[in-house]
Amino acid sequence: MVQYDAVVIGAGQAGPSVAFTYAGQGKRVAVVEMAEPGGTCLNHGCRPTKALRASATVAHSARRAAEFGVHVGEVRVDYGQAIGRVHSLIDGMRASLQQSLDTTDNLDYLQGQATLIGDPAGQEHRVLVSGDGEQQELTTAEVFLNVGTRAAIPSIDGLGSVPYLTEIELLALTELPEHLVIVGGGYIGLEFGQMFRRFGSEVTIVAGGGIASREDPDVSQILTDLFTSEGITIVQGRPSSVRRDGTGVALEVPEVGTVTGSHLLVATGRRSNTDLLGPDTGLSMDERGFVLTDERYAGSVPGVWALGDMNGRGAFTHTSYSDGDIYLHPPRTVAGRVMTYAMFTDPPLGRVGWTSQQARESGRKVLKAEIPMASVSRARLESEETGVMRVLVDADTEEFLGATILGLQADDVVQVISVAMQAGVRYPLVRDALPIHPTVSEFFPTILAALEPLEAADPEPEQSSTTPSPAG
Hints:
Layout: E1 2-4, E2 6-9, H1 15-24, E3 29-33, H2 39-44, H3 46-63, H4 79-103, E4 107-111, E5 113-117, E6 125-131, E7 134-140, E8 143-145, E9 149-151, H5 167-172, E10 179-183, H6 187-199, E11 202-206, H7 217-229, E12 233-235, E13 241-245, E14 248-253, E15 257-261, E16 263-266, E17 270-272, E18 304-306, H8 317-328, E19 340-343, E20 349-353, H9 356-362, E21 366-372, H10 377-381, E22 388-394, E23 400-406, H11 410-413, H12 415-423, H13 427-431, H14 443-448, E24 452-453
Parallel strand pairs: 1-7, 2-3, 2-8, 3-4, 8-18, 10-11, 10-16, 11-12
Antiparallel strand pairs: 5-6, 6-7, 9-17, 13-14, 14-15, 19-20, 20-23, 21-22, 21-24, 22-23
Helix pairs in contact: 1-8, 3-4, 3-6
């Protein structure tokens, strides 16, 4: 039995910052990792997918080169080289984190299965670490959980009998799938779908409510039209069963029939990894297994905090990192955080605050202004005219309520509004600011000078001229 001042379970985006800070204060800290340091983001999430996206974007740009007067000849993708570049980058980043964990004074790094036995009195929590046929017992008064989430596997008849992929197995492939079928029309499914189509795979996305269904309908339609124009087949339906089909798979989708492909990616959401900590944590959780916490991430067991995706307060690297930062800097709380995020399609989608539908449901007097990306000079100059810029403000308080930016540099541009919301800046101050020309964000003053009352309902989006169909 080894006594520590604090034990951090999970070396994702929040845990290490807490561990390094505590160790720097002279406290004895243990970090226990059940897989690889860096969590989802570093190993099979944000960073490897963005590195792979970069290769897909280059391939797409090369195919469009003639539009810009540049002639490159036939574009050929060496997927093995592209994914090799990804692994090389990630291996280097992981090694850097590993070195810090291994060499920091007052910090012990342990790898193995962690089981938490929470002390209801909050005096002496026990963490059992199992690995290589041995078990260590750690005791501590403070436990920080940062164990993240994993792919949620839907109940589809026959799924367990086919070699389906999650993002982990997909990133381990060294050869390009001939035909990738994706179940799920959210961020993971859309980002991978567009990437692999640009690499040369046939891609079919099966999504019951259509793709990006949590966004405003017109935004979902823009993405549908974009993906269809790139040769991606979108099937609106929910698979009832799946079976092997030769060396591939076949899904039965009652709405359309049979969808077949060589590989199947399941991207239907995430579930908490809290169950991996054993049955005796003592923590209160919601129906999906996410730990219930107060606004400074304290769980129901004294001396146990839940940081990152597992607390259900955000499923992004930046929210996880922010959790650690908020905890380390009292009296800050998560209640003061403005949620913002991006979907890294090309072009990307940047979002903060409410959608138009959420604004309508709020009962507040709301003003809205928007402009199609085709009217933004910078986007026109770069022939990146897909998308829309939309801003919502409160008519009475003049506070920003939300923004949806789909288009060129949207992942960066939306942060103009998120920072304004975090700082409580009223919209006239942004409207009257001096922007730089030609940029995408220079259009915020133009948009904010044309605010109008939010209509009762958005106009029905025009349907894509291409009818989604099952793929063979």
